[in-house]
Description:
This protein is mainly alpha-helical. The chain has 4 domains: 2-77, no CATH class; 87-125, no CATH class; 126-184; 187-234, no CATH class. Helix content is 58%, strand content 4%. It has a two-stranded antiparallel sheet with strand order 1-2. The longest helix is centred in the middle third of the chain and has 18 residues, at 127-144. It is globular and about 60 Å long.
Amino acid sequence: MIFLRGLYRRHLHPLRKFPGHPEACVSTAWAYSEALKGYPEETFEVLHKRYSKLTTLRVGPNELHISDPELYKVIYKQGDSFPKYGPFYESFAASHSLFTETDSVKHKERRRILSPMFSRTGILKLEPLMHEKLSLLDSKIEKLCHIKEIDIYNAFRLLTSEVIMQFSFAKSAEMINEHDDNFNSRFTDALTAAVHSVSYAYENPLVGYIGKCLPAWILRIMSPEMSKVLDLVEV
């Protein structure tokens, strides 16, 4: 059965004409292995150049990677032309959020409710919040820069996370000053773990389903990584 499925995906599948890594057309294992390396887009870029700079690359049995920015509005315009791929969004274990909703009618309604918050007027109202968080970040960088090297990547992760947190929940998580001598945070550690867990759940959907059914305390015992993800939910 696996052999026949591989033959179908390689020679009869609707995406068979798109070039890509030889293993990509057979299963999602290749894309998953690239994701584990940390930044699969670098590999995709190399393959795009290898295949005469084609803008469309097959990275999975049912998945394409497109590098042409002109196609962004075509793919993401409102409508049913390119519906969200259910198996991928189910990996986030956040059913019916604006990000994961695959039903176009429900997604449109949720987007209508939230759109005013992301209008120009809505964003301008955030300026005082941005100035407040930038001031906190600037003060901490000024304090630490004379003492030690600073991980500026983590610093700006905390800045954006703090702004989004307060914008979304009207509550500060105090991440920027969580530690006096660095820019580490329980939240960003959990966020990193969550990204890895999504890739794993997509590649192993049964494990993801079982994980959603188990009590949180069991998940914490079974997996330190999952414990961090649960920390993210609690934050």
